[in-house]
Amino acid sequence: MRAFFDFAGKRVIQWMDRTHELMAFALIATGVTVTKFNVAPRVIRPLVRAQIHRAGVRLLPMIGFLGCALGLIIIGQTVSLLTQIGAHTLIGTLMVTVVIRELGPLLTAVVVLARVGAATVIELGTSRAQGEVEALEALGIDPVHYLVVPRMWGLAVSVFALTIYFVLVALLSGYLFAFLQDVPLPPSEYFHQLAAALRWEDFAMLTLKTAAFGIIIAVVCCYQGLAKPLRIEDVPNATTRAVVSSVVACVAVDAVFIVAYLLI
Amino acid sequence: MNTAAETIARPPVIEMFDAAVTSARAPGAAVISDINWCVSLDDYWVIGGPTGSGKSDLLATAAGLQRPLRGVHRIFGRELANLHEADRLRERLRVGIVFEDGARPFPQLTVAENVALPLRYHSDWDEAMLRQRVEEMLEVTELSAFADSAPSDLMRALIPRVGMARALALGPEVLLLDNPLAGLGPRQERWWLNFIASLAAGHPSMKGRKMTLVVVCDDLRPWMNQGRQFALLKGKHFLPLGGRADLERCNEPLLRDLTAAHSS
Asked: Which of residues 203-222 of B touch A (CB under 8 A)?
């Protein structure tokens, strides 16, 4: 029994330490964004654009495919079921709650994490292991400013934009499925339902939440890649840790947002 | 060499008093202790030490990239630890460093972008001036033909020159070189020795200003006719040996070892 508590206690303390370090890292990166906002814009801004291109534009086909699949598989079936039992007035509320508030942001975040977050840890871990971070410092370039800040804001914008696309594609393809199944629901009714169920908070929350997911992924992945001096052979472990921590952190933040929805 | 008046007007370039240097790999432990070292303007220091004697850590500390464990470290008469961030950056940029093992160019940038990066970050030059300076740096390091290649596409022996061009781009007054001849063939070795000698004598690309140099190496032979001040790292201590004439009188066994034909 004692051993169990020792073990559990140690894990909790480890977990708290890591959370604490991550928060500190996020604060440092945010601080650098503010204090160095006008430092070297012609170096940093193209890097932000490159991140948006990499995490946003290039993921568009993948997000479109997933949105389409989700629409056809889940939404279409839900719509046709609800209409069959005469509960089609619930369609709007259901779609807004499930797709716009929850599935859209979370699935998009997971896709971005898998495609970009993991690569970020490997990239930064390798550069740290090869001394490129020190080389940046030697040139008077703040590594947080050059490596972390563009990723943070690039990913925040990317997750936000991709979520919007994801939601649009999923809702449209969902209706398409229902239409193909001859569900007696005119498009005007479907979109009217959706529009009626949307509240202004949904837009604000969607923006905040997706940006938070992007920042979390960037901060966790950069932290795992940069914060400690890695050896090349540590990079795979750091990558796994980053993916797990990012998912946990995103879900935790998601829970906070659910509470916020309930309070509003 | 300097008159008394000049010495007072211009503080020594790098000073260390009772300083101890720590290692990035084992922070907290002293690799070299009790360093009393003063680099004056236009000096050409050659510091020999066997592998693992802390040569790279000494250079990183001298350049202000690592904090000394104890003691005083000044660059141009100012103690870095006491300076405000902007001042610290300004002093640090007067010291360039070329790292060991290929000089760590950034692999995701082309050769020209590598050289341009510090200029883009720190100066407000327009693109034309920038390009001109980059071309000049590539010309003096004989890399013009490879401007648009990735550093990893270059021949191995040429890669350190990218780091050299990058370190010189901002026109530093002091250049620290970490074992620059390691792994080079005789032809490349001769190029480096000639180029470094021309920097010491005042290279046209540095507006003819004589450059203060510090070289650390594990084979003193090529440097015997180049350096003006010599020192050894032996058993965690910094041993200044004096000028070229003093070397002949010195019967330190490590000196004989580092100048023997079999050492590499």
From this structure: none
